[in-house]
Design goal:
Layout lengths: L1 E7 L12 H20 L5 E7 L14 E4 L6 H8 L5 E5 L6 H9 L4 E2 L3 H7 L2 H10 L8 H6 L3 E5 L9 E3 L2 H13 L4 E5 L4 E10 L2 E14 L5 E11 L6 H14 L5 E10 L3 E8 L9 H5 L3 H7 L10
Parallel strand pairs: 1-2, 1-4, 2-3, 4-5
Antiparallel strand pairs: 6-7, 6-8, 9-10, 9-12, 10-11, 12-13
Helix pairs in contact: 2-3
Protein name: Putative ATP-grasp superfamily ATP-dependent carboligase
Keywords: ATP-binding, Ligase, Nucleotide-binding
Pfam families: ATP-grasp_3, preATP-grasp_3
């Protein structure tokens, strides 16, 4: 029997002691548990292990069915993967792109065992600016379009390699936004300054392989802006817009453009986008990994996404513990 390790960064202790841990832990656990649950549903075809930490135990229904693989207190995610990856045939990682972490996870695990996007796709998608420029070259509308700069009422400053809404702030005028971006650059941070595209916040969930993309689900993003302009993420409602919706076909076209613009996308991929009243779908960023929208999607679609994702990867010899 082949073995697979699921390692989600937050529930594996990646943010222990960090101020954001409490807020992000429920999201991390939900993604990990959804992935493990889908794998366990494959009728015993795989021996499933999951990285855990104190406060992020396996879901009750998974105890005794999946192997608990606790991360030693204080051990970095990369060190944990370096130890555990050789003991498994496959490794399925969810980690932020920030600081190149997801890319480094890929390097540590190795392409032969890695479930998900290839190294080049991870490199491109880890930079919001670089990935959006690649999309523009394929004719996609993005937040970098000069048309949005000319009519912008608000501006957003965020990490160029960030994940989610972390350190994302909206400003009512350009000088304030530019000053904030400059301060971040002086602190050594990676920064992108973009017009805030007005419209409905959405996300698209894709199944990608060999330069193609299937639009699995078109979702509504719950985005909130505080009185200080700080942006928060309040969850995602999957499947809010079906194939019969007028927005489905244009987003499917955007999905195809993403798949060709970023070579090596494979498996579950997300696009954060805004539906603009005249421009249609406007790409904000590409997430080259499992995201919150994965949770419950296999059940909603009545498909085994885990099985389909595993099928996209060539077989390797069993390594074993």
């Amino acid at each position: 029997m082949k073995s697979i390790l699921v390692c989600e960064f937050v529930s594996a202790g990646g943010l222990v002691g960090h101020a954001a841990e409490a807020a992000l832990m429920p999201l991390g656990r939900s993604m990990r548990d959804a992935m493990v649950g889908d794998l366990l549903a494959l009728d015993g075809a795989w021996s499933v292990s999951a990285a855990t930490c104190a406060g992020a135990a396996l879901a009750v229904g998974h105890v005794g069915r999946a192997r608990d693989c606790p991360v030693p207190a204080g051990q970095a995610t990369l060190d944990f993967l370096a130890t555990q990856a050789p003991r498994h045939d496959r490794v399925w990682v969810v980690a932020p792109e920030t600081g190149g972490l997801l890319q480094r996870c890929h390097e540590v695990v190795g392409a032969a065992r890695w479930i998900g996007c290839g190294a080049e796709a991870l490199r491109l998608a880890s930079s919001k600016t670089l990935s959006l420029r690649c999309l523009q070259a394929r004719g996609a509308r993005t937040a970098l379009d000069t048309a949005f700069e000319r009519v912008a009422r608000r501006w957003v400053v965020k990490p160029d390699d960030g994940a989610g809404a972390v350190d994302t702030q909206v400003f009512g005028d350009w000088p304030q936004a530019e000053a904030e971006a400059r301060q971040r650059l002086q602190r050594g941070a990676t920064v992108t300054l973009q017009p805030w595209v007005e419209g409905e916040a959405m996300s698209a969930s894709l199944l990608c392989a060999a330069g193609s993309a299937e639009l699995l689900s078109l979702n509504r993003q719950q985005v909130v802006i505080g009185s200080d302009g700080r942006v928060g993420f309040d969850g995602v409602r999957i499947g809010q817009f079906g194939p019969g919706d007028a927005r489905w076909a244009p987003v499917q076209q955007l999905a195809r453009q993403v798949a060709t613009a970023l070579p090596g996308l494979r498996g579950f991929v997300g696009i954060d986008l805004v539906w603009h009243e005249t421009a249609g779908p406007v790409a904000i960023e590409v997430n080259p990994r499992v995201s919150c929208a994965y949770v419950g999607m296999s059940r909603a679609l009545e498909r085994s996404l885990a099985a389909e994702i595993l099928a996209l990867h060539p077989e390797v010899d069993h390594v074993g513990a």
